[in-house]
Amino acid sequence: MRSEAQRRAARAARGRWLSPARRQVLVPYALMLPAYLFLGAILIYPAVYNVWLSFWSWRLTTPHLAKFVGLENYVRLLTVNPDFWGVTRFTLGFTVATIALEFVLGLASALLLYGLVRGRRLLTSFLLTPYMVAPIAVGLGWRLMWDRDIGVVNFAIGLVGLAKVNWLAETWPAFWAVVLTEVWRSTPFVTMILLAGLTALPNDVFEAAHVDGANRWQTFRRITFPLILPPLVVSLMFQTIFKLRVFDIPYILTEGGPGTSTMPYGLFIQRIYFRYFDVGNAAAVSVVLLLLGAIIAFFYLRLVRERDI
Amino acid sequence: MRCIALRAAATAALIFALTGQASAASKVTLLIHPTLYQAAGGPSGVVADLEREKGIQVTVVTSPYTKIKDKAVLSFAAGGGEFDVVTLIGPWINQETIGFFEPLDAHIKKAPAGYAYEDLIESLRQTARFPKPSGPAYAIPYRVGTGIVYYRKDLLAKAGLSIPKTWDEFIAAAEKLTEPGKVYGVVQRGKPGEHVEQDFKRYLFSTGHGTISDDGKKCLLDQPDSIRVLEAFGASFFKGWAPPDMLAYGRDEYRNAMMQGRAAMGVFFSPYWGLMKDPKKSKVAEDLGWFLVPSLDGKNVGATLNSGWFAVMDKKSKNKAAAWELMMALTNKKNQLRGGLEWANGPVRTSVYQNPEFQKKFPVAEGWLTAISRGQEDAQHPRSAEISDTVSKEVINFLQKKKSAAQAMKDACRQIDSFLRM
Questions:
Q1: How far off is chain A from B60, nearest CA to CA, in Å?
Q2: What ipTM was estimated for this complex?
Q3: What domains lie within chain A, and their CATH numbers?
C-alpha cells in the first residue's frame, strides 16, 4: 500500500512524462504511426522477407525440401547461371539507351511546347497520348508495326529504297525495336515533368539575361538548363528505376528473344519464379535488381544535392 | 416465449447448416485453359448440362497456357482447395506435382459402365498414371493434339510433287514450293520458349524418342538422329525457304502465315484443322490437305510429339464427388464426340475417331488417330520447364549459327543432365 506522498510523487512523474512539451514532440509521431505501419506491412516486410528467401533453396512444389543455403544462390547466379550476365547486359543497355533518348526527345518536346503561344494545350494532349495507352496495347500494336513482311516500319524504309529488316528476329534490330517502342511510350512522362519545370521558371531571370545581351543558346545553357536540372534529374531517376524493372514491352514484342537477347530482369525473375517455381533464386535476382536500383538512385540524388549546394 | 425462440433459432441453424452442406456439395471450381473451355462448349456446353442434369454448379476460371500451371501450383502450395478440377498438360504430371492430386483409381472403378474408361486412348491413359505406364492414375485425359503437316494441295500438285515421307524429301519440297516474296515453302516457329521448342520436338519425336530417356535419367539430344533432325529443322530457314524472321514467329504468326496463303506447308497442332478450314478465317480453306509427319528414314511415319491435356482433381477438394462428376462429364463418350464435332476439341477416345459422323466431317481423323497412337507425350519430369527452356535456347543458338547442331545438342545435354541429377 503506497502512502499519499508516494502517490503524489507518481502523479507528478506521469505529469512530467506527459508534459505539454513532450506531447508536442510525440503527437506527430503518433499520428504518423498508422501510415508507417501500413507502409511497413506492404513495403518493408515484403522486401526484408524477400531478402530472407534469397538465402534459401526452396521450390514451391517441394516445400518440405526447403533448406537454408546462405549465399549459395548468389554465388550460383554470378558464376554458374548461363543467362544472368546476358540479362544484366541487356537491362543496363536498354536502360542507358532509353534514358538517353528520352532525355533528348523529352527536353526537345518540352522546349517546343513551352515556346508555343497558341495551341500548347492541344499539342500537349496529343503528345501525351502514348503514355496514356496501356503498355500491352502498345506492345501489340508495335509488334505488328515491326513485322518484317506486313509491318509499316519496313514499308516506310522500303519507300526510301532500303532492304527489309528482321526487326524482332535478329539480336541488334530486336534490341532497338524494344528500345524505340519503350521510348515512344515513355518520353511523354519526361516531357510532362520538364514542361511543368519550365512553366515554373521565373521570368525576371530571362528578362535580365535578355537585357544583358545573352543569345538563345547562352540563355538555354546558362539559365534554362541549370534551373530545370532538378526536375529533370528526378524524372530521369524515376524513369531509370522503371526501366530496370521493365517487363511488359519486351514480353509482348519478343518474349525475351531472339533467344534471351532481349530478356530484362523482370522477365528473368518471372521465368524463374512462375515457370521453375524456384523461390530462392527468384528472390536472389530480385535482390540484385533492388541493389542496382538503389545504387543508381544514390548517384542521381547526389547529383541533385550537389547542384543544390 | 423464450423457449420457442430458442427452438426456432436452433431449427434455423440446423436448416442453414444442412443447406450450406448441400450447397457446398453441388458447387465445384474448374481451372481451365480458355481454348479447352471452348472445346467443352463454353458456358452453354458441358458445364450447363451438368448443372441441369445433376444440379452441380461449376465456377469456371480460365487461364492462358503460360499461366495455368502457375495458378494451379500457387494454389496447391498455399494449401489447395481453391480449384477442385484443374486442366494440365502431360509433362506437369510428375513426381513433384502428384502429391497435390487425388488418386483416381477408386473413382474410376466406381464409374458407370457407360463411361468406358478403356475407350480412352491407351497412350494417354498411361501418361495419366505415374509412374508410367501402370502406376496410380492421377488424371483423366481430356484433349489431345499431335503434329500433322497441313499443306497446300494446289501448290504441291502444281509443282508435281508427291507427299514427302522423309525429312530430306520434305526439305526438297520446301525448296520447290517457295515463291520468293510470295510463298514460303515451310513455316515454323522460332520464338523462344514453348514456340520453338515444341516445333523442334515435332521433328525430334519422329526419331522414336524424346528429349530424355523414359526413366528420366539421360538426355538423348546428343544422339546422332537428334542432331540430324535438328539440321533438318534448320535447313529450310538457312536456305530461305522459311520466313527470314522465323525467330520472331510464335503461334499467331505461323498460323496466320498458313491461313493467309503465305506458306505452303507446316507441322501444326492437329486441332488447328478446324480453324484453317474455316473459310471465314482462312484464305486457303479449300486447298488445305494433310499428311503425316515424315521421319529420317521414311519408316514409322507420323510418330511425333503428342500434346495432351488432362484433368486432375485437387487432393484438398471439398467436393470430390461433384469434381469427379465434372471430370466424367468432360471426358465421356457423348461429350467427347460433341466436342470433336461441334467445338473443335481434339478427342481422347478411340471410338470418336472411328465414328462415321466424325470421319465424314474430318477426313483427316484417320491420320490423327494414327499419329496419336504412334506419337508420344513429352517426358514427365519435375524440371520439365528448365529442360524446355534449355532446348529452346540451344536450338535458337543453332538457328542463329552461333553453334553447330552437334555443339548445340551437346551443350543442351550438359545442362539437362545437371537437372536430371537434381
A1: 22
A2: 0.82
A3: 4-53 (no CATH), 87-308 (1.10.3720.10)
